[in-house]
Specification:
Elements (H helix, E strand, L loop, with lengths): L1 H15 L3 H7 L27 E2 L2 E8 L4 E8 L3 E4 L2 E10 L8 E10 L5 E10 L13 E9 L11
Antiparallel strand pairs: 1-5, 2-3, 2-8, 4-5, 5-6, 6-7
Length: 162
């Protein structure tokens, strides 16, 4: 059993490596964090909001439960909320650089930890950069969350028009 956990931990550590080139550009992204209960708008003058960047309507996240070593990939539509354990995840923006530039993905996330009495505590609010997950990480004792990518999902043909 411990050998299996060691392999998972090793695969996890290997998966985080190799981001040094893109990390050089990540220093241009302003970081927004706030305490519990304070809502802030995403900064509009950041590298993520550059006019050449492509906006998407789904952010792809990877979440880790440190207790069970369970890794889950979450596709979160912008403006909607998803749950992972006691975390409530909400994406506000997801942008990628155009194909002619070095690849980079920026996502503005709001993450709340929901307590037993349904009280919410804001544990993260700000920009996450896919190539540099340690630049502005979620600091939680049980869970880790990283941005992987942004996607555009077209509405289905059967969907009713608003």
């Amino acid at each position: 059993m411990t050998t299996g956990l060691r392999h998972i931990a090793l695969a996890f550590l290997i998966g985080l490596g190799g981001h040094s080139v893109a990390a050089q550009d990540a220093s241009q992204v302003p970081i927004q964090k706030s305490g519990a209960g304070t809502a802030q708008e995403a900064p509009r003058d950041s590298a993520a909001d550059h006019p050449d960047n492509v906006a998407h309507n789904v952010v792809v996240l990877r979440a880790l439960d440190k207790i069970t070593a369970r890794i889950t990939e979450i596709e979160l539509p912008i403006g909607e909320e998803a749950r992972f354990g006691t975390l409530a995840l909400k994406a506000r923006y997801c942008r990628t650089r155009p194909p002619i530039e070095p690849p980079e993905t920026f996502a503005y996330l709001e993450i709340d930890d929901i307590k037993r009495d349904e009280e919410r505590e804001r544990v993260f609010e700000g920009w996450m950069v896919a190539s540099s997950p340690a630049l502005n990480p979620l600091e939680h004792s049980v869970y880790d969350v990283w941005v992987i990518n942004c996607r555009t999902v077209e509405p289905s043909v059967d969907a009713p028009n608003p």
